[in-house]
């Protein structure tokens, strides 16, 4: 149990897969402001579960840019790669409750199943769409417990999926609050059976973010509106695992002139690039705020 936290606690949770850019810097500044304006605490968490794509040099560069922008945060910085045992323990609890199943499907298996079901007359394609595209058609949910256990024992590569329908039924109706969008009824089923442990990584974004926000005592989870819908899944995991539910605060996602989300691939938009071009930290703050204001009114 966390001690009761009366102060606002926010966090910035970058994945070190590239340099900080104007969009992610805005997210950091937003979280920092939300904490500081409430006399609260600001944390940084490195979301480096994807060991194939994350690089320590990007982590160093992100922290250096944040400091250069004038942000200060509490130590220690939590690195998700150092906490795989925490995620494992949470998975074990969900498995013991009968809410996880191993999924052996390849992307090609899933695509073929979706394709086949779309050919069936009378099936509504819309029913298969979730916020991240087509939802998993449940192939491995139908395997018998014996077959699944046998294939796991034989060492077949597998992910672990949440049986979202069973989990939502067990949890009952859930709600969460967004500081801007107001009260929300949780609808995790729109994602279908999400992966909670990937074949190549013994956890997932959904699981680690939900657990870490609780373990770090985050009271206000600020993040981009692009992950708004994920909160439905996070709320369900909180209910299943007995985790606290923070207030959510989904902010504008900065886009480039042509409407694309700003990304680390646009060299000109990295904080490094802007620094090299002679922009001050204050100028970059103003640039990010102006971008965000434009997004709010767009
Ligand atoms: N690591 C996630 C990202 O980079 C954080 C999103 C969140 O705060 O949940 O988008």
Quick gist of this model?
This protein is an alpha/beta fold and 298 residues long.
Give descriptors for this structure.
binds glutamic acid, 10 helices, 298 residues, single chain, alpha/beta, Rossmann fold, 3-stranded antiparallel β-sheet, 39% helix, Glutamyl-tRNA Synthetase, domain 3, 2 domains, 3-stranded parallel β-sheet
Name of the top-level CATH class of the largest domain: Alpha Beta
Fourth-tier CATH superfamily name of the largest domain:
Glutamyl-tRNA Synthetase, Domain 3
N-to-C series of helices and strands: EHEHEHEHEEHEHEEEHEHEHH
Proportion of strand residues:
15-25%
Characterize the main sheet: 3 strands, parallel
User: Biggest sheet, strands in spatial order?
Assistant: 1-2-3
The CATH architecture of the largest domain: Alpha-Beta Complex
The proportion of residues forming helix, as a percent range, comes to 25-40%
- Overall spatial form: globular
Radius of gyration, taken over Cα atoms and rounded to an integer in Å: 20 Å
Number of E strands: 12
Q: For the residues shown, what is the average pLDDT?
A: 93
N-to-C span: 42 Å
Number of helices: 10
Bound ligands, each once: glutamic acid
In terms of quaternary structure, the protein is: single chain
Number of domains: 2
Helix and strand content put the structural class at: alpha/beta
